Each structure stands twice: as C-alpha cells, then as structure tokens.
Amino acid sequence: MTELAPLSITEIDLGTLAERSGAIAVFATEDGKLDQNARKVNSLSKKAVARLVESAAFEKAKTGEAVTVSYPAGLAAAKVIVVKMPRRPSVEVARKAGAAIAKARGEDDVLVLGGSMARMADVAFGVALRGYAFTPHKTGAQDALGKIEFMVSAPDEVQAAADVLMAVAEGIVFTRDLTNEPANHLTTTEFANRLKEMENIGLTVEVLDEDKLEDLGMGSLLCVGLGSASPSKVVVMQWNGGGDEAPVALVGKGVVFDTGGISLKPAGGMEDMTMDMGGAGVVSGVMRTLALRKARANVVGLVGLVENMPSDRATRPGDVVTSMKGDTIEVINTDAEGRLVLADVLWYAQERFKPSAVVDLATLTGAVIIALGRENAGVFSNDDALSKAFLKAAETEGEGAWRLPLGAAYDAKLKSRIADMKNVGGGRDAGSITAAQFLQRFIKEGTPWMHLDIAGVASVKEDTVLAPKGATGWGVAALNRLISDTYEAE
Ligand code: BES
Ligand code: MN
Ligand code: ZN
C-alpha cells in the first residue's frame, strides 16, 4: 500500500535554517506581505523572496498557488517555495496551497514555515494528498517520499487537527490504491484479503464466500460473476464506535473488471473498467478513516466483489434470476451488472443490520458522465434531510455532487414482460435515473437511502487540485464528514 509522506509538526526554530537542504516553503499575502519567518528566509537569501514577491510571476499567481526560487544564494536549500495565501485562508485555499507545495517540492524533503498562519493542518493535508503517486508497477520507482516538516507557533493545536486529517488522507490513499490497481492484481480474492487486513486497525471484517451467498439466495449478485474464474464475495466491515444505536450502512459496487459480459463492451477504453470497483474502494477507504480516527459512530461497510466476464458459463441476455429479496429480474443487458450486484447487497444490509440510513456508491452508469461530466457525482435519494446533509458535507470538502430526480414514471421503464422487472430501462433516456430506480426497488419503505453514481469522478484523465490523474478517492472526505456531522456522538 502507498504510504503517506512522513509528517512532523514542531515549534519554530530558525537556528539552522541556512543549512537546511531540500525545499523551504514560506507564505506571502496577496499584497506581498511576508510573515516573520518569510522575512528571515528573505534576509538569509539576500532578498530573493522580496524580489520574487514583486515579480510578474507572483502577481500572476492565484491565491493558493506558489512560485519557486531555485538554488538561492545564502541558503543550502535547493529551492524556496513562496505560496500566495492570506493569513486566514478557507479550507479550500489552504489545501490548494498544500498541493502547490507538493508539486513544487517534487521528491525533496520540505520544511514549511507556517508560523501563526491559520489552517496549517489543511495545508499539510494538501501536501500529503497531492504528493500521491501509484508506483507499485514501476520498476525502480523511489518508494520513500521526502519528509514533510511544519514549523508552527502552536504545534499541539496543529497536530491535533492534522491527526484527524491524516486519517482522512490515509482513507483516500487506500481508496486510490484499490481503484488504480489493475484487475489481474486486484482480483476479488486479493481485494477481500486487503480488507481482512483492516482487522489490524480495529475493524471487524467478514468475508462471505459463494456458498454462503448461495445460501442467502443472492441470485442477482451471483449471476454477474458466473463467467469469471475469480469467485464472487461479499465483505462486511463493521466499526462500532457508537452506543447501541442502529448503524449507518455504506454499500459499494466492487466489479474488479467490467468487460460487459456477453453484452461485451467495445475494445476502445475498456481498460478503464479496472476502476469499476470504485464504489467498493470508497466504502473501504471511509471504513479505514473511521477506524483510524476512532469515530464515535456505528457504521457498517458492505462491498459486493465480482468480475464481469464472458464465457460459456456466463449469464446470457434474456436470462431470469431471483434476487435475495425474492423479486425476479430479466437480464436484458449483462453490462448493466452493477445494479444486479447492489440489489442483493442492499437487501442483505437492511435485513441483517436494520440500518438508520443506507448510502450506496457505484461507478454505475456512463450516462452520469454525459449529464454531469467529471465535476460532480450524481446524487439520488428518497430522503431530503440525508441528501442535503451530504451535499453540504461534500461542498465543505470540495467534492462535487449534484442531486438528480427519481420518480414513478422512470420506475415504470423497468417493467418486464416475463419477470418482476428488467435490469435496464429500455433506450438510453435518463440512464442514470432508471439505474437508481432499479436500486430503489431493493430499499425498504421508510429506510433513508442515498445512491451516489461516481462513474465520472472516481477516476479522471487529468490532474485535479488534490490528485494526479487516475483514481481520486472522491467521496471519502465527504462521507467521513457526513458521519461526523450527522451520526457522531458529541
Ligand atoms: N461500469 C459501467 C459504467 C461506467 C461507464 C463506469 C463509464 C465508468 C465509466 C456500467 O456497468 C455499465 O456498463 N453501464 C452501462 C449501462 C447500460 C448497459 C444500461 C452504461 O452506462 O452504458
Ligand atoms: Mn457494465
Ligand atoms: Zn460496471
């Protein structure tokens, strides 16, 4: 697993500043004011910082961006990174500033002279996340990242905030690693093994194998994996940090590879379907974060792990399967497999845990990318309070999310001639909504439920503020915040 760069937070000690190697980061306000520490670096570097702050490059830089001086005279450091940031930045700006430091430092150690600037823990969060690289399959890649050191006026305070944020960052990195991992490495078995290992950090983890899933009657989930050599599994991760209240259930689609099955996808871009377990990846990352920060809440994470392959044993278009709920499903298109997996895991989650709310995450439809692009995940819910609380948490964390409608007319598209329902809406209209309607058929009356279609945001082809291209870990921070804001005891 990718490790976060080591972070230390100490008191200010400028005694050995001139001899520091690596990078040194300082802050300047939009109008070019240097704090005390930046002034010290300025005087040691024969006013290089002051000249940089007066330059056109610094003028052009946006708030939260950085400009670098290389090999400054008077310092052993390879570079001084000057970050444009107000003394009291927003969370978003502070994290962006951290990302700018991460990019500017490259592989060097970095000393950040934070002094009494606000939100230094968020800056550290930005440095840690933007420094992520997925390298296990690059031979000769450097595996130890350069150290991150913050010198601040109130180290205890910054450390306490950083402890929580680093638990979130670890969850995000766990999600990114799972989502980036190719399917020949991340088989259903390997995925389950990696989750089982989280017993180390205090989670209770059960792996349900195919025999057990058959006993439970999960004919919908099981029909997806029939063509694969990898056995289907459901993994149940429990964190019991609350009292005896009902848990929140997080449910994830974990299709380790989606060829489409007999309804085979076209070759172009099929390699992207290695991220089709992104929903399960986010659920796993959130559970990791909750355990690491010892959340005072009861949360259960359930993931359905399958591989969608064509073969002589694979499910055919036209086959009818019986779900754990008992409803029968006509499989019109074997590429609409995520909903078949979720139907049974959602039902099992409700039957076993009687949760106070259910949130599912899935890279469910290409249609959500057409609707919302890479900027926002699709949010569907039967509960205004739940979806509003989530949208607020997502906004705070800078994770895009946008609510889309549900309704009886969409549900009616799932009518089947020969079974209780079919697995696609017929035609491409409102494809993300008809998929959500299918899921809602497996939600019990009165259970608050939210479905997040993350097909557009789980993995992206261009760098984002906090992530290099590839898996983003979208949703870990927002769901962690939803839990702390809404479900956690004071
Ligand atoms: N895993 C795909 C959805 C997807 C598409 C995720 C692009 C990420 C990027 C899903 O299983 C799928 O194939 N959906 C079909 C549904 C259709 C057959 C009704 C789709 O979106 O085309
Ligand atoms: Mn599919
Ligand atoms: Zn899929």
Automatic annotation (TrEMBL):
Broad class of enzyme this protein falls into: hydrolase
GO-annotated cellular components: cytoplasm
Superkingdom as given in the UniProt entry: Bacteria
EC number(s) given by UniProt: 3.4.11.1, 3.4.11.10
Location relative to the cell: Cytoplasm
Catalytic machinery residues: K265, R339
GO MF term (any one): metalloaminopeptidase activity
Record text on cofactor binding: Binds 2 manganese ions per subunit.
Keywords: Aminopeptidase, Cytoplasm, Hydrolase, Manganese, Metal-binding, Protease
Domain Cytosol aminopeptidase: from-to ranges: 333-340
Cited Pfam families: Peptidase_M17
GO biological process: proteolysis
Record-listed Mn(2+) 1 binding positions: D258, D335, E337
Cofactor annotation: Mn(2+)
SUPFAM superfamilies to which the protein is assigned, alphabetical: Macro domain-like (SSF52949), Zn-dependent exopeptidases (SSF53187)
Binding site for Mn(2+) 2: K253, D258, D276, E337
The protein's role, per its UniProt record: Presumably involved in the processing and regular turnover of intracellular proteins. Catalyzes the removal of unsubstituted N-terminal amino acids from various peptides.
PANTHER family: CYTOSOL AMINOPEPTIDASE, LEUCINE AMINOPEPTIDASE-RELATED
NCBIfam families: PRK00913.1-4, PRK00913.2-2, PRK00913.2-4
Official protein name in the record: Probable cytosol aminopeptidase
Species annotation: Thalassorhabdomicrobium marinisediminis
